[in-house]
Specification:
The protein is of the alpha+beta class and 141 residues long. The chain has one domain: FAS1 domain, CATH 2.30.180. It contains 5 helices and 7 strands, in the order ααβαααββββββ. The protein has a 7-stranded mixed beta sheet with strand order 2-1-7-6-5-4-3.
């Protein structure tokens, strides 16, 4: 089984997320034993951001690290193991998990492909980049 990084590379749908991890110097961290649960925005999710927002985010490394670590939880959690409510990220803030029927979301980002198993954790592909947590992060222009 491959690491989170190697699995994401092989999937081919996380190229922008991987570029952001590289820019923020987080690639090596996500190759360590972890374990980690990653809410990984797909390339389509990043394409929903305006070009100006994405460019600004990739230039501001400090903010980029904050945003990326909002997408990481310590430990391995399958999608069905979450219960509605707060999920604490490695960034220190909480996201809100919700489930309605077969649709699961984290801070409104829909799980497109949950439970991608990796040697050091699990990836949940999501349809939106989580940029803010209520009242805690300034907006990116």
């Amino acid at each position: 089984m491959k690491t989170i990084i190697d699995t994401a590379i092989e999937a081919g749908t996380f190229t922008t997320f991987l570029a952001a991890l590289k820019a923020a110097s987080l690639m090596d961290t996500l190759r360590t034993p972890g374990p980690y649960t990653i809410f990984a925005p797909t390339d389509a999710a990043f394409n929903r951001l305006s070009p100006a927002t994405l460019k600004a985010l990739l230039k501001d490394i400090r903010r980029l690290k904050v945003i990326l670590t909002l997408h990481v939880v310590s430990g391995t959690f399958a999608a069905r193991s979450f219960t509605p409510g707060d999920v604490k990220t490695v960034e220190g803030r909480s996201l809100v998990f919700a489930s309605k029927g077969h649709v699961m979301s984290i801070n409104g980002a829909i799980f497109e492909q949950p439970d991608i198993a990796c040697s050091n954790g699990i990836i949940h592909a999501i349809d939106t980049v989580i940029l803010t947590v209520a009242g805690s992060l300034p907006a990116v222009a």
